[in-house]
Amino acid sequence: MSESSLENGAHAVASAATTALLIELLAAPKPGLVDRYSDLRELNVFRISASAVAAYRWFLRAAIGGARRSRNVVGRCVLGAVEDALSSQRGGNTHLGALLLLIPLCVAAGRLLRSRGGLSAEKLRRQVIEVVRAAGPVDAIEVFTAIKEARPGGLGKVAYLDVNDPKTYEEIGRKRIGLREAFSTYRGRDLVADELVDGYPVTFEVCLPAMRRYLRSSRTIDVAVVNGLLSVMAARPDTHVVRRNGLHVARYVSDLARKALRVGGPASPSGRRVLERMDRYMRERDVRPGSSADVVDAALMVLLLTEGMRP
């Protein structure tokens, strides 16, 4: 593959990642989240759009690094993207979880640029599993540094490899702990960590099939994205909600998501009524299913990249 072809392919990967963030942002109605009709206290479409665009160059570098089999590209690009996303707007953390999922996908897609037969969801999943497994201690340190700098809400503490403990970084370096092993500490506590450790199961087995199905049946991006989000929320309690609002609230929100899906979500009048009640409940209590939205971002990127989905 020539350098110009590689660069063009890498731009296509970066474009898919950025477009995924923007589509998920604008899709509506998303209960408890920013969309084109609703803001949150410190976040709005302008700030989140600025953050998404700021990440583009890091998606590009990740894809090129993947194609060239560069070392430590995951950590370097996650940290760079988080820093640029934070400095691009005044709302604080906007995309940490999404970047943690999208950067390895960009690296994986970059690796596949040189392969024959084109991209598919199956190939991309196999490759991203390899990318996460190969990410070493330098990647882990830079990714944990990015998490610390983003200061995500409700992060709390863990007994071992806590991102806010300076000893964590010494431990990772001394014991040569790779990214996957480092995130294993957070297993069961964080949906994004679970996706990275377990090979993106909710992205590829829950959200992606749901969005494909609703895109075919409705031919409407809003319906596909919102019902993809509801499918993730219904599959397991959102871990961001668990940390911020408690397990009982997260389980109740999951029940509401299942109820909304049963009546079609935004595709039907009864579904829209359920979503309105759900949204009102969540906004009154500042319940934000951010981890589920991160998975939607990842699944959207896969759709854009492998199936030619166009807004």
Shape: globular
Oligomeric nature of the chains: single chain
Fraction of residues in β-strands: under 5%
Estimate the mean pLDDT confidence.
Answer: 95
Query: How many discrete structural domains?
Result: 1
Task: Give the proportion of residues in helices.
Answer: over 70%
Q: Let me know the largest β-sheet.
A: none
Just name the CATH architecture.
Orthogonal Bundle
Rounded to the nearest angstrom, the radius of gyration is: 18 Å
Number of helices: 16
By CATH, the superfamily comes out as: Triphosphoribosyl-dephospho-CoA protein
Structural class: mainly alpha
CATH topology name, in short, is: Triphosphoribosyl-dephospho-CoA protein
Structure summary, number of beta strands = 0
CATH class category name = Mainly Alpha
Low-confidence stretches: none
Instruction: Give the SSE order as H and E letters.
Output: HHHHHHHHHHHHHHHH
Give the distance, in angstroms, between the N- and C-terminal Cα atoms. 29 Å
